[in-house]
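Quick start: what a row looks like.
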Amino acid sequence: MSLVLDPAAQDLLFREARTANTFTDEPVTDEQVQAIYDLVKFGPTAFNQSPLRIVLVRSAEGRERLVQHMAEGNRPKTATAPLVAILAADNEFHEELPALLPHFPQAKDMFFAERPVRESAAGLNAALQAAYFIIGVRAAGLAAGPMTGYDAAGIQKEFLDGDHTPLMVVNIGRPGEDAWFPRSPRLSYDEVITTV
């Protein structure tokens, strides 16, 4: 059985999409970011907990503060991308649960009263949302350059607080010259899928 999604959309979102390493200077607008969020917010999470929080870094001052925390090889990419997003997990996401899960408001205290439980749930579900966000960036016709090479403690102190854990930094924009590395191999169906 073939996929329902149009082949061009499959290419845009998956087959032809790659991590961008260079970008043009064409701006990424607030309207584009709003459209991305308005699409990806519907991706499922456990208990609809939605712990992803996003800090958009646009200003030169903010960019300078961020670049100093990036790994050496990631600094030029982050310094030149039109928009950079810091994706973080909100470890106090449970405070929103009564509004996000109105049919089961007691979930907030029943399952997420303890901080270690919240941190685990927030990390997993915010990572899911981060993947949706990357796909949303691609759906907007933009390229994403997600990275985890950075000083997490430094980024947390500089841009977040003790209740937010950085997950990744994503450079966003139109791909520039020599933006793509060659496609790396992938595991085959038989290497990944087991039927019991």
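That is the whole record. The longest strand covers residues 164-173. Residues 115-139 form the longest helix (25 residues).
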